[in-house]
Queue: 2 jobs
Job 1
Amino acid sequence: MWTLWPGYVCFFSLLTAVTVSGDDIRFASYYGDHMVLQKAPEKAVLWGYGPKNVSVVVTLSGLSKRKTYSSTVFDGIWRVTLDPVKAGGPYNVSAVQKGGSDAEVTLTDVLFGDVWLCGGQSNMAFTVSQMYNSSAELDLASRYPDVRIFQVALETSAAELRDLSGIAVPWSVPTADLLGGGDFTQFSAVCWMFGRYLYQTLRYPVGLVESCWGGTPVEAWSSTRVLQKCGITQGAQSSYNFMDSELFITAGPMHNSVLWNAMIHPLLNMTITGAIWYQGESNHNLNCDLYNCTFPSMIDDWRMAFHQGSGGQSALDFPFGFVQLSTWQKGSKLDGFPDIRWHQTADFGYVPNERMKRTFMAVAMDLPDADSTWGSIHPRFKQEVAYRLSLGALAVAYGERGVSHQGPFPSTVRINDTHLMLTYNQNVSATTSKDLFEICCSTEKVQCDPLQHSWMTVPMVPQGSATVAVTLIGCRGEHVASLRYAWRDWPCDFKACPVYSADEVLPAPPFLLHRW
Ligand SMILES: *[C@@H]1O[C@H](CO)[C@@H](O)[C@H](O)[C@H]1NC(C)=O
Ligand SMILES: *[C@@H]1O[C@H](CO)[C@@H](O)[C@H](O)[C@H]1NC(C)=O
Ligand SMILES: *[C@@H]1O[C@H](CO)[C@@H](O)[C@H](O)[C@H]1NC(C)=O
Ligand SMILES: *[C@@H]1O[C@H](CO)[C@@H](O)[C@H](O)[C@H]1NC(C)=O
Ligand SMILES: *[C@@H]1O[C@H](CO)[C@@H](O)[C@H](O)[C@H]1NC(C)=O
Ligand SMILES: *[C@@H]1O[C@H](CO)[C@@H](O)[C@H](O)[C@H]1NC(C)=O
Ligand SMILES: *[C@@H]1O[C@H](CO)[C@@H](O)[C@H](O)[C@H]1NC(C)=O
């Protein structure tokens, strides 16, 4: 049985291994028994260490015809790229050293399937045992032996690492013990549920790689390329407000790039299908205005870097899904959460969009949890969140037709003296709202500046299958300049927002529309 992190962490000293000679060959840290390698049409990459100049013969044996590949150790490293292997298994992968010794290292029970990376902060670290319905979910774990898990240990580094310096959970077949570790340890509820929902549709192996840390800002997960692009030169530590007690309980490293360096960069050679992400809470008061640059740029940068690291195998536009922030403080007047939600979409309100291609989003603002044991910033409704994400993945990553994954978004706005008629891009299930629609008025034809203009709540009444009417009261001779929806930290009660998809599954995301 596993003890909890940090009691159980395998430490490796591979970082210095590149210069040794005379040592026998081995695989890089994150190759192991029970692992999932990326299936066809992509090619999986295998690499490791070895003594100078020896040749290495890698053999894949299992379902298909035995196949061998050879490589030579150069600069302490050997590497092979397998031919595409279709989903399934089990396979064994052995690497044999030719020269010096005949050392052999073997990975057993290897499956080929889709590999997904799961990143972010505490709401991604939140474990299966912490979520609602955890006991039922843990009981089911053993029914999904083809959904395999791996978890990177919490490590920081001032420089980009070649390999992981620690592993929290080596590649494993899921068990209730592994999924139900202590709070915020192992294994991620959103990551696991996402993988198991996908598996129910795909019916072939899924590999889940968790690499996340509670209380961390996007800057820690971003390379210097991203920070430079967004004009961030300062380290984050000094500007962070540690007074937020709920955030504090899960506070992690804040320094620029330290987690990119230690927990993402080492994984770049791995061929992956895509990534999911749940983060943003720690940026509500840290470079919040820049999140519309940092987050989309981090996605671009991860895509470019994984594409290069895998020798072109991970797609340059691999699908990237994320959870739009849920809720934190009921009644809060602070704009942090609404601003981050908006910036998570690069200020479009929906994804995918022109700026954020092949992305998908789970809206979660209607899943508040005032009584969560871990503070309201950590809602326990992770099944819903993961389910919504899995719909996005099926539609965007797998191109399944007819999977609806986006809540309604306004497509046309008509305005007369007394009303604003908002037509959504799909039929809606709408209920009257007294205060979630707000307008902003101006004497000039300009966009509302939230600091100079004030917002007024206006009543909304449903009108027909895709349209709602907002009554314009209060502009008194000025023009209605902007309209926004659900622009607050905690907009609605559980699954009780005013606008949903017609089947009542997907909430309409918040929006901010300017007339000019
Ligand atoms: C390794 O190979 C290089 C190039 O073939 C050669 O110059 C070098 O002497 C070899 N080193 C060893 C330790 O065999
Ligand atoms: C893999 O290796 C194990 C242990 O050596 C062996 O029992 C098994 O039959 C092998 N499986 C395949 C597919 O070669
Ligand atoms: C728990 O699971 C059941 C059955 O899947 C579902 O109906 C229920 O809504 C879930 N409860 C929560 C709180 O997620
Ligand atoms: C990836 O593989 C290359 C060898 O092709 C190696 O030099 C590098 O250290 C590996 N790791 C990373 C993070 O690039
Ligand atoms: C990002 O948001 C800020 C503040 O809301 C805004 O001033 C800026 O123009 C936005 N930048 C981009 C690239 O959308
Ligand atoms: C404005 O539109 C609303 C909704 O269609 C309608 O009820 C109202 O009569 C219109 N008002 C004027 C002044 O045309
Ligand atoms: C939307 O609702 C209208 C009126 O009920 C119906 O005729 C139409 O088929 C619906 N559209 C879709 C795409 O379901």
Note: The first helix runs from residue 122 to 125.
Job 2
Amino acid sequence: MPAILFVLTSAAKTFTGAPAGWYLPEAAHPYYVLAPHATIDFASPAGPNPPISEGSVKMFESDPECVKFLADETVKSKLASAKKLSEVNAKAERLRCCLLRRRPWARHRFGCRPGQHQTCIRGKKYSVSILNVPFDDHAQFYQAGKITAAVCHGPAALVGATDAEGKSIFAGKNATGFSNAEETQIDTVKDVPFLLEDKIGSLGGKYEKAADPWAPHVVVDGNLYTGQNPASSAPIGEAVLKGLKL
Ligand SMILES: *[C@@H]1O[C@H](CO)[C@@H](O)[C@H](O)[C@H]1NC(C)=O
């Protein structure tokens, strides 16, 4: 059984000071898709017990998998022993897939700010989450042909990643991510440093989205896997499962 590492954000606030944290369904849904097929661990930039988005806990209080995830003793123990991302990065050569989540705006040296985000990378040993790590690392995973998957605002963590020729990994690729309409509807345009839909387009990507806001949409192009919004959380887990041929 392969091992997967989910890495969650350590940022409890956005750069405007709004509450943030990792977004519950974007961890819980892919977790239960992948858990029967892999050993899953967690990581975050700061290590143990990454902060959860309380808003997401409230929003998904009737979602069976989210409820189960919060009460799951195995999950609790994995969160309590979440590895520091810097320790995971040292093993990057063993990773094969990366799954990023919502609101990756991090106050890190590339000027992006993470709020809520989660990532998973799957390799011989792990799947991990990568927020707050240098984009060079994303590029390294991607260039090695590993599945690089991101959902919701997660693709924002990849906007600086390049392919072997130095081009954006979005250039010429079909991709998705949180849409301008969705960002506008929840009044968070002011809380993000750029709109993902516009950014993917400006990097030469072909941005796609579901016909209606909030509907699930997943795009797989080569080893770049992207999901549009929270509803795309389970679908991106399924896409990763398929891509890994588990
Ligand atoms: C990208 O989108 C175009 C148009 O929608 C489609 O024809 C093409 O097959 C897609 N490429 C991949 C790799 O999905």
Note: The pocket of 2-acetamido-2-deoxy-beta-D-glucopyranose is lined by residues 174, 206, 221 (CB under 6 Å).
